[in-house]
Amino acid sequence: MSDMGLKDVIVDIFQLDKDWTTRIVMGMLVLGVIWGLLGVIDSLMVRLVEASWGLSAVLPLTPQEYFAGITLHAERDLFGFAQQVIYAIFIYFTIKLLNIEPRAKWMLNLGFIAVNISMMFMEGPILIIPAAGFDNYFSATIWYYLSPLGIPGYSQYVVSPLFFWGWILLDAFTYIGGFWIVYHYYLASKNMKEKLPVPLVYFLMVTLMFMIGYSGVTAADVWDVLAFYHIVGLDPIANQIAFWIFGHAIVYMAWVPAVGALYLLIPMLANKPLYSDRMGRISALLYLIFSNNVPIHHLYMVNLPIALKLLQEVLTYSVVIPSMMTFFNLWATAKGADVKWNIITAWTVTSFAGAIAAGVTGISNATISFDAIVHNTDWVVGHFHAMILFSIVPAAWAVLYIMITMMSGRIWFSKGMAWLHYIGYMIGTTFLIVGFELIGFYGVVRRAEIYPRVPGLIDAEVIATVGAIIADLATLVWFLNLVLTLVKGRLVRLEGLSLPQVAGAVAMSLEWPSSISFTSPVLKFIKTHNTSKKGLASTIVLAIVGAILIVVSAVPLAFAGDAYTPQTWIWITILTIGIIFSAIGSLKGMKSI
Predict the structure, then answer these.
(1) Which domain holds residue 204?
(2) Which helix (H) or strand (E) holds 362?
């Protein structure tokens, strides 16, 4: 190890001595983690500004830097990190669990390049143009949905067009990677005699969720670029509605992969089959339909028809149904099982419990009367950060602990660092969420750089900031453990081992305090034989028709002029039909339901 040079370290970190799929996936993971760490630094800057104002009435950063920090944190952590890592996990397990030969290497390379260039473009300081109010520093757009913020001729604050071109590249990555994943599921479905295992159903469903959910923001992005160059005009309300097809779906794009991970992990940890296979498949379909069809529930305070808002409220409550089905199914699976305590169990239990706790606050946000009180306050920030930090990220770490060993053939370097990360992260995250929600109870709107310096509110800001620092330091411990694992972790032979057996090996190396063993695999790897070549099934045609309807639905919205016209109802009707067709056709065609 002492003779290891820089070249060897790079080869180990990026797994350059492995097959091309592993190399691309590891590249996505490494750059995703780097973007994630940069986004954490952005968020820490925001927390320090707010705490400094409360404690000493001093702003260490300019307003532009403060708001740029919020924008960069969202972009880097949600897209550069979360979405890229989610796609990487899906790509890897698609190949491994479907046991098929990967194709179209160029597509994955192109998508990998597009998403990482998109992050650079979204930062926006590269191209300077002569315009009043132009921002030649990092874009401070306070998140993107405040249409037409940043567009010359429509806003006094103007950003580089590269900011909007970065969104176009992110859209391209979503569809390039998504089509690659769905295409390989289609190839596998032609040879399958049985239905997909439920975890793979969720991975496929979330990929479809990404592509459906990005339909609106892609339309909005193209519209923004054309408006930026004064090729077409811009209707801000219609643009916002189109964007929020994505805006709520992104919550489920980020969270439902965690649900899929729980369907993968809990039966393995319990060493039992899933309680209800059918319930898992139906809940996947319901998630796909309802998660994409509530774009207006983030716009309750916008001047829109009351009837349309009430429809969105009802559809939002509908998401509770697959959630109740899912958590009952997973609880019943684990009930009575002899589960040993290890790092994978710890993160899995945290994700399960965290989703329930954070989800309850989401139901309250969906209620129009309650939302009128907490709308755009830090209560909402507390809600979605609780979902991210208590459910989404813990599930990702549980999977990554297994996945890194599968890819590198190395056992994690330090058990102590793994547990230090878990304990520190949980303490810090709890402080952060409690602080956010206390700030929201005081009525402070999110992105408030200054606020009334009253004792209770100052305490809440400090609690949130201290929690962020603790959680960030704990995450740095995980990152160091990751690098040391890839470079110096103990080599193990994994040839011929199933996924549960690899998970068992990782669990035993990271146990606390007792050992764990997996004696029988729960997942059935799909056998590929008796190949039959068939044309596109009618269900696939149905999915394609649904996709066309989703795209076409943006047309009446664009020409509506305002929300009080028949075109708005034509839009929501066509969109709903398109989503249902795409959901049923895709999952049925891929033998998922």
Answers:
(1) 195-330
(2) helix 343-366
DSSP-derived 3-state class of residue 214 = helix
Query: CA 196, CA 261: separation in Å to the nearest integer?
Result: 15
φ/ψ of 491, rounded to 5, equals -70, 140
Asked whether the predicted pLDDT for residue 529 surpasses 80, the reply is no
Residue 444 DSSP label? P
pLDDT of 290 higher than 90: no
pLDDT at 512 over 70: no
Q: Are 410 and 461 in contact (CB under 8 A)?
A: no
Number of domains in the chain: 4
For residue 77, what are its two tokens? 């952590």
Collapse the DSSP code of 376 into the 3-class scheme (helix H, G, I; strand E, B; otherwise coil) and give the result: coil
Tokens encoding 281: 């498949």
| Owner of token pair 């890897």 | 92
CB crowding 103-128: b at 16 or more within 10 Å, else e: eeeeebebbbebbbbbbebbbbbeee
CATH number for the domain spanning 347: value is 1.20.210.10
245, 217 contact by CB (below 8 A): yes
Least trusted range by pLDDT, from 49-53, 292-296, 404-408: 292-296
Residues 399-422: what's their mean pLDDT? 93
- 326 and 379 together in one domain: no
Are the C-beta atoms of 203 and 91 separated by less than 8 Å?
no
Q: Does one domain contain both 325 and 351?
A: no
Buried b / exposed e over 445-472, threshold 16 CB at 10 Å, is: ebeeeebeeeeebbebbbbbbbbbbbbb
Q: Are residues 501 and 526 in the same domain?
A: no
The CA distance from 169 to 217, in Å, is 12
Q: What is the largest CA-CA distance in the chain?
A: 72
Distance CA 180, CA 288 (A): 19
E-assigned strands of 431-520?
none
Tell whether 302 and 425 lie within a shared domain.
no
Task: Tell me which of 514 and 15 has the higher pLDDT.
Answer: 15
Range with the poorest average pLDDT among 78-82, 95-99, 475-479: 95-99
Q: Which two tokens stand for residue 370?
A: 């309650």
Separation CA 13–CA 371 (nearest Å): 46
* Stated pTM of the model: 0.85
* Spatial separation of the C-alpha atoms in residues 559 and 424, rounded to whole Å: 52
Query: Between the CA of residue 310 and those of 196, 215, 375, 390, 472, what are the distances in Å?
Result: 37, 23, 16, 30, 40
pLDDT of res. 90? 93
Q: What is the pLDDT of residues 449-466, one digit of tens each?
A: 999 999 999 999 999 999
Q: What are phi and psi of 235, to 5 degrees?
A: -105, 105
- Residues in a beta bridge with 377: 445
pLDDT at 229 over 80: yes
The pair of structure tokens assigned to 114 is 């597009």
| Pairwise CA distance, residues 22 & 62, whole Å | 43
